[in-house]
C-alpha cells in the first residue's frame, strides 16, 4: 500500500508534467503501424463495474503516469505524454451477449468479442487503454476482464507487469507476486570466449545482412499461413489457443535438452508443418521465417514485480531475431522431435551473435538520422516481410486475484501486426498458454487449433511415451 500511496503523491505533484515520448513509442502509435496489447483474464467469480472502478482508481492508475496521459505535442511539435484528468467510466466497457446460452457458446462469444475489439482503434483524445468487463461464463471461468492497452505505453513485459502489480496473491495478499528468475546470464548467453568470438562476429554479420535484405523488401513466400495481402493488419482475426502443463514441458525438455523457448519454437515449427500438410501446401523451396521477440530486461533477471517497478522498467525495450522455419517436401511421417532438434540448432546459432544487442542502438541511430516515421516503416517492413511473429511473457508462480476475484486463466495477443499469423505464449501457475492469432478469412482457425494440439501431443509421445492430458481451449 505504501507503494501505491507514494505513486499517488508523485502523480499529484507531476499533474501538469510533460513526459517525453520515446521514438519507439512514437513508432508504435503512428499512421504506419499502431499496435495494442490485449490481456484476457478469466475469473472464477463475476466482477462487476463498481468493483472495476475501485480497482482502476486505487490499483491500476497509480502504477504509471502514462495511464493518465494522452499523446500531445510540445512547443517544438515533438510528441509527448500530457497528463490529464481520467474519466474512469469512459474507459470501462461492459458488453451485452445473448441470454441463456451454454458455456461453450459464451466461450465462443468471448473469443469473437476479443477478435472484434482487437481491430478497433483506441480513441486518441483520452489515455490509450480500455478495460472490458465480460459477465458471462466461459470454459475457464465465470467472468472475464480484457485489458486493451496501446503498445506505445510500454512493451508487453512492462504492461503486463503493471497489471500484475495491481493483482494480489490469493494465499497472502500482502506479498508481491513472484516471477521465475529469467536472467539470460544464467543461461550462458553472456559467456565470453576467445574461441567463440570469431564465429559470433561471423553470425552477427550474417544476421545484419539478412536484416538489411528484409528491410530492402525481401519478402517471405506466400503460403497457407501467409497471404502476403497488403493491409492484412486491418483484416478480421480469429484466435485459437492450447494450455500445456509446465510439468509436461519439463519432461520433454529433460529428454531432448535445450531451453523451454527451443521447445516452444519446435512446437510452432511442427504446427506450421502439420497445417500446411493438411492444406496441401509444400514448404520446400519457400522462404519462411519467424520474427522472435526478446525482452532485454531478461539480462537483469528480476525476481518480483515490486523489484521491476523500482527499476523503472517502463518503455519498449525489445529486440528481435529472424529465425528460419524448416521447409520440407510434405512428408507425412516426419519424426516430431526433428522440429525440436532444428529449433535447438537454429536458436543456439542465433544466440551466438551480437545482433540482439545491436538492435536497440541501431534503432536509436536510425531515429536520429531519419526520424520516428522511418523507424515505423522499418518495424512495419520487418513484420510484413516475415511469416509470423513470436512473443512470450513469463507470469508469476502463485495463484492471483483481481479485486478479490481469483484468476482461473489468462493469455494475451498483440493486435495491429501486418501478418496473417502471430504466436504469443504466457506462463502462469504451472501452465503455459500458447495462443495463435490469425487472419480469419484466410487461415482455418479450427484446423490450426487441432494442429497445435496434435503437435505437442506427438512431440510428447516421441520424447516420453505414455499418455498425456492436454488442457485445451
Overview of the molecule:
By secondary structure, the protein is of the alpha+beta class. The chain folds into 2 domains: 2-169, Chloramphenicol acetyltransferase-like domain (Chloramphenicol Acetyltransferase, 2-Layer Sandwich); 185-298 and 316-392 and 422-464, Chloramphenicol Acetyltransferase. 38% of the residues lie in helices and 21% in strands. It has 13 helices and 16 strands. It has helices at 2-13, 23-27, 49-60, 103-118, 156-166, 194-215, 246-256, 260-278, 305-310, 336-351, 355-370, 372-384, 445-464; strands at 18-20, 36-43, 69-73, 79-83, 92-93, 129-134, 143-150, 168-169, 237-245, 289-295, 318-324, 388-394, 400-402, 405-415, 421-428, 431-439. The protein has a 7-stranded mixed beta sheet with strand order 5-6-7-2-14-13-8, with helices on both faces. A 6-stranded mixed beta sheet has the order 9-16-15-12-10-11, sandwiched between helices. The protein has a 3-stranded antiparallel beta sheet with strand order 1-4-3, with no helix packed on it. Residues 1-15 and 182-191 have low confidence and may be disordered. Keywords: Acyltransferase, Endoplasmic reticulum, Transferase. It holds the Pfam family WS_DGAT_C. It is a single-pass membrane protein.
Amino acid at each position: 500500500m505504501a507503494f501505491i500511496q507514494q505513486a499517488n503523491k508523485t502523480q499529484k505533484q507531476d499533474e501538469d508534467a510533460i513526459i517525453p515520448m520515446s521514438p519507439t513509442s512514437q513508432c508504435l502509435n503512428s499512421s504506419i503501424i499502431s499496435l495494442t496489447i490485449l490481456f484476457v483474464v478469466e475469473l472464477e467469480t463475476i466482477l462487476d463495474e463498481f468493483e472495476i472502478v475501485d480497482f482502476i482508481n486505487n490499483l491500476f492508475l497509480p502504477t504509471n503516469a502514462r495511464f493518465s496521459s494522452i499523446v500531445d505535442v510540445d512547443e517544438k511539435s515533438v510528441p509527448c505524454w500530457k497528463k490529464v484528468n481520467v474519466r474512469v467510466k469512459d474507459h470501462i466497457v461492459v458488453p451485452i451477449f445473448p441470454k441463456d446460452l451454454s458455456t461453450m457458446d459464451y466461450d465462443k462469444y468471448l473469443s469473437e468479442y476479443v477478435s472484434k475489439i482487437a481491430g478497433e482503434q483506441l480513441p486518441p483524445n483520452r489515455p490509450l487503454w480500455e478495460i472490458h468487463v465480460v459477465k458471462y461464463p466461459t470454459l475457464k471461468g465465470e467472468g472475464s476482464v480484457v485489458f486493451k492497452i496501446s503498445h506505445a505505453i510500454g512493451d508487453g513485459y512492462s504492461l503486463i507487469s503493471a497489471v500484475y502489480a495491481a493483482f494480489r496473491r490469493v494465499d497472502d495478499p500482502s506479498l508481491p507476486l513472484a516471477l521465475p528468475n529469467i536472467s539470460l546470464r544464467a543461461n550462458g548467453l553472456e559467456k565470453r570466449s576467445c574461441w567463440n568470438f570469431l564465429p559470433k562476429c561471423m553470425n552477427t554479420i550474417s544476421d545484419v545482412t539478412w536484416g538489411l535484405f528484409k528491410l530492402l523488401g525481401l519478402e517471405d513466400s506466400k503460403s497457407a499461413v501467409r497471404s502476403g495481402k497488403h493491409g492484412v493488419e486491418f483484416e478480421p482475426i480469429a484466435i485459437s489457443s492450447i494450455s500445456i502443463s509446465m510439468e509436461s514441458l519439463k519432461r520433454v525438455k529433460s529428454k531432448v535438452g535445450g531451453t523451454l523457448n527451443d521447445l516452444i519454437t519446435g512446437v510452432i515449427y511442427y504446427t506450421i508443418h502439420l497445417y500446411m500438410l493438411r492444406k496441401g501446401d509444400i514448404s520446400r523451396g519457400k522462404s519462411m521465417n519467424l520474427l522472435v521477440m526478446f525482452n532485454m530486461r531478461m539480462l537483469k533477471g528480476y525476481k518480483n514485480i515490486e523489484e521491476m517497478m523500482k527499476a523503472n522498467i517502463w518503455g519498449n525495450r525489445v529486440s528481435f531475431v529472424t529465425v528460419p522455419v524448416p521447409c520440407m517436401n510434405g512428408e507425412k511421417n516426419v519424426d516430431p522431435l526433428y522440429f525440436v532438434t532444428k529449433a535447438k540448432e537454429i536458436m543456439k546459432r542465433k544466440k551466438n551473435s551480437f545482433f540482439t544487442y545491436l538492435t536497440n542502438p541501431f534503432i536509436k541511430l536510425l531515429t536520429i538520422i531519419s526520424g520516428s516515421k522511418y523507424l515505423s516503416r522499418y518495424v512495419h517492413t520487418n513484420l510484413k516481410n516475415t511469416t509470423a511473429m513470436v512473443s512470450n511473457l513469463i507470469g508469476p508462480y502463485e495463484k492471483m486475484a483481481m479485486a478479490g476475484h481469483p484468476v482461473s486463466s489468462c493469455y494475451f495477443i498483440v493486435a495491429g501486426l501486418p501478418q496473417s499469423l502471430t504466436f504469443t505464449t504466457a506462463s502462469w501457475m504451472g501452465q503455459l498458454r500458447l495462443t495463435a492469432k490469425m487472419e480469419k478469412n484466410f487461415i482455418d482457425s479450427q484446423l490450426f487449433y487441432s494442429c497445435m494440439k496434435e503437435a505437442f501431443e506427438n512431440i510428447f509421445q516421441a520424447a516420453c511415451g505414455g499418455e498425456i492430458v492436454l488442457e485445451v481451449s
